[in-house]
Write a structure and sequence with these properties.
Structural class: alpha/beta
CATH topology of the largest domain: Aspartate Aminotransferase, domain 2
Low-confidence stretches: 90-111, 441-467
Largest sheet: 8 strands, mixed
CATH class of the largest domain: Alpha Beta
Distance between the termini: 52 Å
CATH superfamily of the largest domain: Type I PLP-dependent aspartate aminotransferase-like (Major domain)
Radius of gyration: 24 Å
Strand order of the largest sheet: 4-11-10-9-8-5-6-7
CATH architecture of the largest domain: 3-Layer(aba) Sandwich
Helix content: 25-40%
Length: 496
Amino acid sequence: MIEIMIDLQGGAKAPLYEKIYEYIKRDVIAGKIPVGEKLPSTRLLSKHLSVSRSTVEMAYEQLLAEGYIKAEPCRGFFVCDITELYEFGHAENGSKDIAPFGKKGQKEKMGEDIIDFSPYAIDTEHFPYNVWRKLNKNVLLDDREELLLSGDGQGDYGLRKAIAAYLHQARGVNCEPDQLIIGAGNEYLEILLTQILGRNKRVLMENPTYLQAYHTFLNMGYQMSPVIVEEDGIDLWKVRKYDPDIVYIMPSHQFPLGTVMPLKQRLELLKWASEKENRYLIEDDHDSEYRYRGKPIPSLQSVDHFDKVIYIGTFSKSIAPSLRISYMVLPPELLNRYHEKCGFYSATVPKIQQEVLRAFIEEGHFERHLNKMRGIYRAKHDFLLAELKKRNWVEKVYGDHAGLHVLVQIRTEKKEAEICDLAGKQGIRIYGISEYVVPEMASNGYENTKYSKYSIESEKIGSAGTAPDKPILLLGYGRLCEDEIRKGLLILDTII
């Protein structure tokens, strides 16, 4: 067991538990306290430091919540392997919002008793309300008239600088703050992008896919060409065959199937894009923060040496959907076009909101929040998988390495729509894979509805132009607690 010596009198003015937390965290990151090392008990450390036991317990709770240490019953606290954790800022202020995932249910705010397995839903119970409230107060503490102005149409420079630093450290994205554009949601950025790229473009998209993006580009007059997602992502042969102007992909975690595009495939796509001047790849990196095996996979943009990747991200899942702050990284050539064609646009995100988010990132709260939520979501993820293993109607579970949902292929004679309808009548909202398949478009000869032969680990999950032969359900767990997951699956037992 290691001996911990902490100077609680010197340094920055902060609560004692924060100083203990910061000291241990810093030494764990630096490797001074090795993986597997046992920490002193709360009783021993409190006696050694001459502080109350509750002070040490609060520090340990924060370290537990963020995944730096683990508690083993009847043994004590041990240092975790932190290679999977985020580290993109160091702050002096800790967060008091420590509430690990447990059995206490999250109450639905929709006025009805519904268990919603939505793949888009996030955990709102553990949002750092106190921190966010404090930051809002601090931003408005002084009479800052500039916060009442519309601000830079590209987004506040301070926030762009903070996001650029975060993207470089967490996702390997190489960009300057000037390359970033802040907007109120992905849809706004995609509409803006169509004005930058020009009219009459052909977009190749994965199928099934994120339909909001599909409809946004379609409504802006772009020719859409969905193609089947293969086991390792979009088929390069089809990309060359259809010769689009733009390829829209989610290489790090395809939605909704959860596939990860191998590096070889990524490099081939980049090579294809580099062969013509006006070819571009749109990388939608929607939920890369949450992976449960290994570190987050580096972005496609991080290996782009041709300036062909347009990188789009959002804080909808990492913080909250209502924040409505997304960002886009433009290659230098497109940045010039942006200034020429769209430089006169006003900001779509209020400056006050941008300033709060900047402080949230720069003061280290975002890092702590991600690490805490990753642990909470992982607990929910593991619980759901353990419950699914008990079901004989579960034939296959996949897409379970990341994100906030898993895909479940089930054994039943019932159709997907019938299962979803029956579940809805019993207060359960579930979603079938067919809801994310691009609808039929007879206007061109591309594979608009040929959702066929997508395979993962040699398992066929679809047939041409139809829903899969065996129903596949998307079971999201982001907003649910253990009791809700268990109750929802028990109801599915009776339906299936």
